[in-house]
């Protein structure tokens, strides 16, 4: 039993460190590409790990918190709360839907980060940044749509092939992500 908890904590910590590092490096090398409304956050490809291990849930959430702390001057406290909440919800939904597949591919899980971030971060951008503490449905749909498109792009361009690789090569078992 002790081995499982150590493995879980180690996996969560490794995922958190990878997510935060990739996001921070991307923001340094390509400012704004991982932290604005239209973003292609490469670290979001790691969300597919939530399909294979529950350790990805705290790992992705903590990684997002750390990454958002690094950009708190640009985005404020709101993204720390709302962006991290969106990551938590997306990871939980991905894990919950991990066995729902089309042609052995977890398509429904791959859509969850786009849905969660589109709604939650879209609201955050509309309410706190665009309309300064008021809600506008059109602005929300635009901002949420842009966030969701960025998420979908990452997950379809990078995540889908990685997920297929995981499935075909049985990488989850080889990496001890599953039992």
CATH fold annotation: Arp2/3 complex 21 kDa subunit ARPC3
CATH architecture: Orthogonal Bundle
Shape: globular
Distance between the termini: 13 Å
Task: List the domain count as a whole number.
Answer: 1
Specify the biggest β-sheet: none
The mean pLDDT is 91
- Sketch the topology as an H/E string, one letter per element: HHHHHH
User: Which structural class do you get from the secondary structure elements?
Assistant: mainly alpha
Strand content: under 5%
Number of strand elements: 0
- CATH class term: Mainly Alpha
Fraction of residues in helices? Answer: over 70%
Query: What does the radius of gyration come to?
Result: 16 Å
Pick out the low-confidence regions: none
Count of alpha/pi helices: 6
Give a nutshell description of this structure.
The chain is mainly alpha-helical. The protein is built from six helices and no strands.
Outline the fold blueprint.
Blueprint: H1 2-29, H2 56-70, H3 72-96, H4 107-130, H5 137-169, H6 171-174
Helix pairs in contact: 1-2, 2-3, 3-4, 4-5
Describe this structure in words.
Helices cover 72% and strands 0% of the residues. With 179 residues, it is an all-alpha fold. The chain has one domain: Arp2/3 complex 21 kDa subunit ARPC3. The longest helix is centred in the last third of the chain and has 33 residues.
């Amino acid at each position: 039993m002790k081995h499982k908890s150590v493995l879980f904590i180690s996996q969560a910590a490794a995922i958190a460190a990878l997510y935060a590092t990739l996001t921070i490096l991307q923001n340094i090398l390509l400012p704004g590409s991982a932290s604005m409304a239209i973003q292609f956050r490469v670290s979001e490809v790691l969300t597919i790990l939530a399909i294979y291990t529950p350790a990805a849930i705290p790992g992705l959430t903590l990684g997002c918190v750390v990454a958002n702390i690094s950009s708190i001057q640009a985005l404020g406290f709101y993204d720390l709360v709302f962006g991290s909440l969106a990551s938590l919800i997306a990871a939980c939904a991905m894990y919950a839907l991990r066995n729902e597949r089309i042609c052995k591919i977890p398509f429904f899980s791959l859509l969850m980060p786009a849905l969660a971030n589109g709604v939650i971060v879209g609201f955050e951008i509309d309410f706190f940044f665009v309309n300064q503490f008021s809600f506008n449905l059109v602005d929300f749909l635009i901002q949420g749509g842009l966030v969701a498109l960025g998420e979908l792009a990452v997950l379809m361009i990078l995540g889908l092939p990685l997920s297929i690789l995981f499935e075909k090569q049985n990488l989850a078992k080889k990496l001890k992500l599953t039992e």
